[in-house]
Amino acid sequence: MTNITQGPKVYPVDFEDFLDFVAKEEETKEFLDRLRKLAKKRGEFLYFAGGVVRDYLLFKKGKLNPQSSKDFDIVLEGNLEKFLQELNEDLNKEILFKSQFLTYKVRFFLDGEPLEVDFITARREVYEEIAQLPKVFPSNFMDDLLRRDFTINALAIGLSAPYEGLLLDLLDGLKDLEASLVKPLHLNSFVEDPTRIFRGIRYKVRLGFDFSEEFYQALEVCYQKEALKKLSSARLANELKLYLFKEGEEILLKLLETTYQLEVFKEAGLEVARENFPLLCEVLKEVKEEFSPKEREKVYFLGMVESLSGLERLGFSEVEITRIESLLNNFRGFYHKINTLSLKEKLEWFDKVRREYLCAFAVIFPELKEEIFRYLKVYSKVRPELNGEDLKKLGFRSGKEIGEILKILRLKRLEGKVKTKEDEIEFLKKFLVKNE
Prior knowledge:
Residues 46-182 form the Poly A polymerase head domain. This is Poly A polymerase head domain-containing protein. GO terms for molecular function: metal ion binding; nucleotide binding; nucleotidyltransferase activity; tRNA binding. Belongs to the tRNA nucleotidyltransferase/poly(A) polymerase family. This protein is of the alpha+beta class. It is built from 22 helices and 12 strands. Among the domains are: 9-175, Beta Polymerase, domain 2 (2-Layer Sandwich); 304-381, no CATH class; 388-434, no CATH class. The protein is 51% helix and 13% strand. The strands form 3 sheets. The protein has an 8-stranded mixed beta sheet with strand order 1-10-9-2-3-6-5-4. A two-stranded antiparallel sheet has the order 7-8. Helix 8 packs parallel to helix 10 and helix 18 runs antiparallel to helix 19 (369-377). It is elongated and about 95 Å long. The model has no long low-confidence stretch (mean pLDDT 92).
């Protein structure tokens, strides 16, 4: 598929228009200008590649909102470490991390405002084992474009000589972009790096593209070599988390369905409950503002899998899986008798379970979703106005007794039998008399 016998196709672009797309703030434009001048001074080729170039070209075709670009790669064909050291002379910056793949994440402070930028060394990649991370070597821009996942991401726009202000197309990515196709660079692409499959699905769904014939062929080669099964739990889980956290709930269902239809879950050794997908997406949307990312992640994975063995494939610890299994078994018993339980008994059960697990149980037991969300959104938020110190002043002993009294006050509030702090005090006075 990849047949390179000459240099890239070169096209002119409206360079100032491109910079306006990339840099929304004047300070950012000035920052890019500094990078360009330094690259020229050092005689090194600096360029944008990947998502930002792709998204700019889609924007010019009216197929993408200007605020929708999520990728920002600046690549240097040269010594990136020395480039950043020299840049330090007139810019306040902080290197957040340097990776084994010759990349840096750097935070700059422009007029006091932070700007985080990913810098990448133009590199060549060598995959020695199926589904393993590659060895990387500094190289030229052509090798850098040839290591990319899809032709639509193997496009570059130069910021300095010899291709300043020019669009570079080594693999007819522009043609595939026009045709709205997600096309891998070669048939072993997914064998080398199976995570490219998940990225391809994200591009297809997010951009409204189609898979090329070569995508399906590369997928078949990947399945024949069982590359997805060799993908580590951490990398598999991370790709699925990107569906939720980078793409969002609006297209999550389509992402999961596409992944299922391509049999990616099955080939990765992950049994999923497809019938749960619609409700799972609905639940995740409902708790988006209230739950932390880690809590939403737990809901997402627990609501997705067919059985608890799937959690091991996603990197859950044996201890947590055992805890969830115990809760799930208890919940099944609770599920069968819930209609016979009093509000007090329901609260006693719900209070023992972490809310992210409860939320996942709302997906696993859809008949209980309304009851669980009533607890999460109403019952769990109701608290007495009196606190432990107030109860001590009223004559209650510290410790367990106070905890039990606070539970009683909460129940009375939920039942509407007390509504104010004064009501609570009056109730407790009667309670003390009754229990003398």
